[in-house]
Specification:
CATH superfamily of the largest domain in chain A: P-loop containing nucleotide triphosphate hydrolases
CATH architecture of the largest domain in chain A: 3-Layer(aba) Sandwich
CATH topology of the largest domain in chain A: Rossmann fold
Shape of chain B: globular
Largest sheet of chain B: none
Oligomer: heterotrimer
Structural class of chain A: alpha/beta
Number of domains of chain A: 2
Chains: A alpha/beta (234), B mainly alpha (430), C mainly alpha (332)
Helix content of chain A: 25-40%
Strand order of the largest sheet of chain A: 6-7-8-3-9-10
Number of strands of chain A: 10
Distance between the termini of chain A: 36 Å
Chain lengths: 234, 430, 332
């Protein structure tokens, strides 16, 4: 049974359809990457899965159970983690408090998980008392991912985790995503840095105008000359 | 997200307006026959004055989204101006040395302000900023203390020697116009400070300025006789003593109706001029209007000032009609919240709706007195039964019941008819 | 020396009293603002409501405080805090929440809170009448006179003032510990930082909203009651509190609880200093002054009838020069 399944999803904002039938499937040990031009509905798709906009057609399933249009709150309880692209930290809270908020629903495990996150993102440990808003962009992204991981999700949704980061940090983040996935967390992320992201992707979804254009393994998409020409900038 | 669509495909004949206004006329005629012509005309004149206040608020709140919680202050300012310009000249005051001394203090105030401003600019001559700031505060403090003690002395003498400064004995309408200008001036200052900030701050600031205006008028016995009140106030039309109650009030009513008609005409003209299109653009879609640049706040300021001018004029007309200037008679409940109810019930931003709301709410307000008294009696009896209390003044209890009802009415309208009985047509682009 | 004691009694003590009251009110305003994003104008009336409930309870059980050696009103405080909190949560559920769910602009909530203001005022006056009533029913206010060696004039402190200082310090410390140590307190700060992310983290935002009203309602009850104990219960208490507590919250930086405390004391002391008659302090110098300087009898900056001008000008000054407040509030 696939971990996360999206079948013919339609939806959008205020009566305007952005998603016109998107299909996606992710297994528990896979990294899925959504790429595509601006306005293709990549982030919208992620938000639709996380219950942040109303889906008007189609279905979303988590481990075979329908979760279409459940509230984010319910989805977090069911083991979904979401890292928005912007405003993904609590700026005035310390790093440590940010992480604790991620484990709000499971306070008993917070101390143990915090240690794991600090091992996973060592820079956060030394800055744990500092307000998260004072950190650099890459470190903020670590706080954001750490916060989502504190809930021990079975699937993690990342919205452009490397946006605005230097190449050095970008590679570091992608490495972390691989490690997170290796630990048994399914990952679905939207990426602008398409080539680099597809390199670590088990599955790649190329969206255009709210529909799937290509769906294949990451490597296969990178090798496909048509994908390369139209979507990866040659 | 699905936002509820208020898709009002309205018929060519405005049935809703016709039915509502028809009903209103029936109600007014009912009052006319039940309470008599003199009572009904008085009610209508007051309702018309309130309608001017409500039009002031409806353009601020409905057009520009700026909520003014200090209408009372602008009303009081207009009322004071109407009083000051129209009541007879106090010859005792003018024949004494007091006007000269008062003028001297006014000059001293101007000089003190100039001095403080000059000191605050000292940094341009090379004085360090901190020293300049400290010096400015020190000079300001001393200048303030000196001037205020002079002012206290002169005003004290005015009160003890000639009662108060009296008026100017000019035609009433001069006072009304100046009242509008005064209110507009205060509105300009407040708007200048607050309109770039969150709308909440404007609410606090207007609330505060209204109380300060009232405190000033109430405590400046030399200017307004304070709690001793000033009466009678002249009318712009023949007084009841000359032509009888009904005729005089009907004449006054026609004056206010003409004023409302002029305001309607002006608003209509402005609405279809480029200025009005810009205002509507701001109201209908603030985001896209914001793309036009920062003149939004300028437009907002213009609307706010214009609304305040209307409130000043309305307040002046209302005070002249009442015939007595009593600073303590200006109450947030009567002169701010009642107007608020008129506007949100009638339809914010819709002039016709506001007019309807003003008359309807005022009629209900006036007629609710006896009803509230009965209700208060009932509640106080319950209170006496439960808590063994002797109810105090029944009239004030009746007033409190009305306070409660007005509050509840505001909440109910916001909840169930947020766009009023005659909603303004707003283009939605979401 | 006498003059200094006079200064202490009429400025330091009086300023601390008003400062404490304003601080506790402003904390509520600022918390509600940071969680619900609107200026809650009915807050001063919530303070009146709290004091009124204490008055009711004290009238019902006038001798409840005697076994504990405290004024009955103080013993009734916890019950009134619970009742006021319930009322606050109820008002939110019935009036504010439906509007919030409808996605109205914050200014509409402000108008709704003005409606609630009128309802509360009407209700309270309906039952209490419009006059002032002492919260000391069947009891006497204790006044402590501390003799200072070598001075004829004593330092004067009343029992309610001492209770007020203790309660203020205790509640500020408790609030600090709650916000920085407890899970819910941190969640509250998180929600004020970023409500969407708080929801996405599984934080029960409804619970946080309820908690906010409970804290604000409790502090309002404390402040309103202790103020009424010090002077008397008046139904128009809120009228004199509204502007100062908003000025305090804005001076301190909206959304910043400890800024609100600082702002409360700033406004409280500014008011006290402005109405204080400075010529009293200068009197001992009078004989040594050159004859051409005539010391006026009244050297107060503003008369008590214009006290309301002080918070207003502080407010305006902050809005002009530093709209985010002295401690950099989150939201302007």
């Amino acid at each position: 049974m696939p971990l996360l399944e999206a079948i013919d999803v339609h939806g959008g904002y205020g009566g305007m359809n952005i998603l016109n039938g998107v299909d996606m499937t992710i297994e528990a040990d896979e990294i899925g990457v959504i790429v595509g031009p601006n306005g293709a509905g990549k982030s919208t798709m992620l938000k639709a899965i996380f219950g942040l906009l109303t889906i008007t057609g189609g279905e979303i399933r988590l481990r075979g159970e329908a979760i279409t249009n459940l509230s984010p709150h319910k989805l977090v309880e069911r083991g979904m983690g979401f890292v928005p692209q912007e405003k993904n930290i609590f700026p005035s809270l310390s790093v440590e408090e940010n992480l604790e908020m991620g484990a709000f629903l499971k306070p008993a495990t917070a101390t143990r998980l915090k240690q794991q996150i600090y091992e996973f993102f060592p820079p956060l440990k030394e800055k744990r008392r500092q307000p998260a808003g004072e950190l650099s962009g890459g470190q903020r992204q670590m706080v954001a991912m750490g916060r989502a991981l504190m809930n021990e999700p079975s699937v993690l949704l990342l919205d452009e985790p490397t946006a605005g980061l230097s190449p050095l940090y970008m590679n570091e983040i992608f490495e972390r995503v691989k490690t997170i996935n290796a630990a048994g967390v399914g990952v679905l992320m939207v990426e602008q840095n398409a080539k680099q992201a597809l390199r670590i992707a088990d599955k790649g979804f190329v969206l255009a105008a709210g529909q799937n254009r290509f769906t294949d393994t990451g490597q296969a998409l990178l090798d496909d000359p048509e994908v390369a020409r139209s979507f990866l900038g040659g | 997200m699905t936002t509820p669509q208020h898709s009002s495909s309205r018929p060519a004949v405005p049935t809703r307006e016709l039915v509502l206004f028809g009903g209103l006329i029936v109600v007014v005629l009912g009052v006319f026959f039940a309470m008599g012509g003199a009572y009904a005309t008085r009610m209508l004149v007051e309702a018309a004055c309130y309608a001017i206040l409500a039009l002031g608020l409806t353009i601020q709140w409905g057009y520009a989204g700026q909520f003014n919680a200090g209408i009372m202050g602008f009303v009081a300012l207009g009322g004071f101006s109407a009083t000051f310009f129209s009541i007879p000249v106090n010859h005792d005051f003018w024949s004494s040395d007091l006007p000269g001394r008062l003028g001297g203090v006014l000059l001293a105030i101007i000089a003190a302000i100039a001095l403080v401003v000059a000191v605050s600019r000292l940094d341009r001559l090379g004085v360090p900023k901190l020293a300049r700031t400290l010096l400015t505060i020190l000079v300001g403090l001393i200048a303030y203390l000196v001037v205020i003690s002079w002012l206290r002395e002169v005003t004290g003498d005015i009160e003890s020697q000639v009662d108060f400064v009296g008026g100017l004995g000019l035609p009433v309408w001069v006072g009304w116009i100046v009242g509008g200008l005064l209110a507009g001036g205060v509105g300009y200052l407040i708007g200048h400070i607050c309109l770039g900030l969150r709308a909440d701050y404007l609410v606090i600031a207007t609330l505060g300025i209204a109380e300060i205006i009232k405190a000033f008028l109430k405590n400046s016995d030399w200017l307004t006789r304070g709690t001793a009140t000033i009466s009678p106030l002249p009318w712009p039309v023949p007084s009841p003593g000359e032509v009888g109650f009904i005729t005089a009030r009907a004449l006054y009513l026609s004056v206010t109706v003409v004023m409302i008609a002029v305001i309607f005409f002006l608003l209509h003209r402005a609405y279809h001029a480029p200025w009005g299109r810009m205002i509507r653009a701001i109201r209908d879609n603030e985001v896209s209007a914001a793309a036009m640049g920062k003149s939004i706040n300028r437009r907002r300021q213009e609307i706010f000032v214009f609304g305040c001018v209307l409130m000043g004029i309305g307040g002046a007309a209302l005070t002249s009609f009442t015939g007595i200037f009593d600073a303590q008679g200006y109450l947030p409940l009567n002169h701010t919240f009642l107007v608020l109810v008129m506007v949100i019930l009638g339809g914010p931003g819709n002039n016709l709706g506001t007019l309807f709301g003003a008359v309807l709410v005022y009629v209900i307000w006036i007629m609710s007195g006896p009803m509230a008294l009965a209700l208060a009696h009932f509640v106080a009896e319950l209170g006496g039964m439960w808590f063994d209390w002797q109810p105090g003044n029944m009239d004030s209890q009746a007033l409190q019941a009305r306070v409660f009802v007005i509050g509840l009415l505001i909440l109910m309208v916001l909840r169930f008819a947020p766009r009023g009985l005659i909603p303004e047509k707003v283009a939605h682009h979401d | 020396m006498n003059e200094l004691i006079y200064f202490f009694n009429y400025v330091v003590v009086a300023g601390s009293v008003t400062g404490s009251i304003y601080a506790m009110g402003a904390i509520g305003v600022t918390l509600i603002y940071s969680i619900l994003r609107f200026a809650h104008f009915a807050h001063a009336d919530m303070m009146t409501l709290g004091a009124f409930l204490v008055l009711l309870l004290t009238l019902l059980f006038p001798h409840a405080g005697e076994p504990l050696g405290l004024p009955t009103a103080v013993v009734m405080l916890p019950i009134a805090m619970v009742l006021t909190s319930l009322a606050a949560v109820g008002i939110d559920r019935v009036f504010y929440q439906p509007l919030r769910n409808h996605g109205v602009k914050p200014i509409v909530l402000v108008i709704a809170s003005l409606g609630v203001t009128l309802m509360l005022q009407g209700l309270i006056r309906l039952f209490s009448g419009t006059g002032a009533q002492s919260l000391y029913v069947d009891a006497r206010k204790e006044i402590f006179r501390l003799e200072v060696p070598g001075v004829t004039r004593p330092i004067i402190l009343t029992e309610p003032q001492i209770i007020l200082f203790v309660v203020t310090i205790a509640s500020v410390i408790a609030l600090h510990l709650f916000l920085t140590r407890s899970r819910l307190g941190k969640a509250m700060r998180a929600m004020s930082d970023n409500p969407d992310l708080a929801r996405a983290s599984g934080i029960n935002t409804q619970l946080i909203v309820t908690l906010t009203w409970v804290i604000a309602g409790s502090l309002a009850t404390l402040a309103g009651t202790l103020l009424s104990l010090d002077v008397a219960f008046k139904p128009d208490l809120s009228f004199f509190l509204l502007l100062p507590i908003f000025a305090a919250a804005i001076v301190g930086g909206v959304g910043h609880p400890f800024g609100a405390v600082a702002g409360g004391f700033l406004v409280g002391f500014a008011e006290t200093l402005a109405v204080f008659n400075w010529s009293v302090l200068l009197r001992p110098l009078r004989d040594s002054l050159p004859s051409w300087i005539e010391l006026p009898n009244n050297l107060a900056l503003v008369g008590t009838e214009y006290k309301i001008v002080v918070p207003f000008f502080i407010l305006i000054a902050v809005l002009i020069w530093r709209p985010t407040g002295l401690f950099k509030g989150k939201v302007i």
